[in-house]
Design brief:
87 residues, alpha+beta, 25% strand
Length: 87
């Protein structure tokens, strides 16, 4: 299982949970598993062309992930971050 850190702007999908577990051999599969359990969450992170949305960031451990086809070993931590804006 992969530990997934959920940013505060997406916790409405996870019933307030900031950390959840998901299964999958790739980032895409983990996001699919999350979306099965928390419908709509994947669309907030990934666009219609399966690219990470410009205002979102994914990290596997300390490395930024740009490609959702990237493999996961299963014990890593996937962190989802959303950009903050304002003035």
């Amino acid at each position: 299982m992969t530990q997934v850190l959920i940013p505060s702007q997406l916790t409405a999908y996870t019933e307030g949970a900031t950390r959840v577990e998901a299964q999958g051999a790739t980032i895409a599969a983990v996001l699919d598993d999350l979306d099965r359990r928390f419908p709509g969450i994947k669309f907030r992170v990934i666009d219609e062309q399966d690219r990470v949305r410009p205002h979102m960031r994914l990290f596997v451990g300390q490395d930024r992930a740009m490609d959702i086809a990237a493999p996961l070993a299963g014990h890593e931590e996937l962190m989802i971050f959303g950009a903050l804006s304002g003035g």
